[in-house]
Design a protein that fits this description.
Blueprint lengths: L2 H18 L6 E6 L2 E7 L2 H4 L6 H13 L7 E7 L3 H9 L4 E6 L1 H6 L5 H7 L16 H13 L7
Parallel strand pairs: 3-4
Antiparallel strand pairs: 1-2, 1-3
């Protein structure tokens, strides 16, 4: 398959929600060695889970398909520029190449606005109405980190 066909598969995933109303009109596929190994569409409403974005669902699908948390060597095709949560998940999964169709501005134009999250992450908006972050319990929690640091059978991912 070619890039256009993979993108079309992602767009078809997004079209699914026009009929089912499981979530917003977003779809994604993950490709490895020229083959789709993961598919996902937004299921936030169907699963009552704000993390069920298309890219996250596709990552979960691909990881399950190949039995690993590491998607090195894969490409992600998505119907829209990924939100901050999805960008983070893509990076954590070691996916180094993403192709997207619609832009973040296109998503904002239909009511999906991520701009305040980007501003918050960039430190341009530390508004407690968005999120209040307060440190607590470090004295006890750091002990667990120290114990983990000493483990000889640990896996860093």
């Amino acid at each position: 398959m070619e890039k256009e066909a993979f993108m079309q598969a992602a767009i078809e995933e997004s079209h699914h929600n026009l009929e089912t109303n499981e979530g917003g009109p977003f779809g994604a596929v993950i490709v490895k060695n020229g083959k789709i190994i993961g598919r996902g569409h937004n299921q936030v409403l169907a699963k009552n889970d704000p993390t069920c974005h298309a890219e996250i669902q596709a990552i979960r699908s691909a990881c399950g398909q190949i039995g690993t948390y590491d998607l090195t060597g894969c490409q992600l095709y998505t119907s829209c520029y990924p939100c901050p949560m999805c960008l983070s998940a893509i990076i954590w999964a070691n996916i180094k190449q993403v192709f997207y169709a619609n832009t973040a501005d296109d998503a904002a134009g239909i009511g999906f606005r991520d701009d305040f999250i980007y501003r918050f992450i960039e430190g341009k908006c530390q508004d407690a109405a968005v999120l209040e972050l307060t440190g607590a319990g470090r004295t006890d929690a750091i002990k667990i980190f120290k114990l983990f640091e000493q483990k000889t059978d640990k896996t860093i991912y």
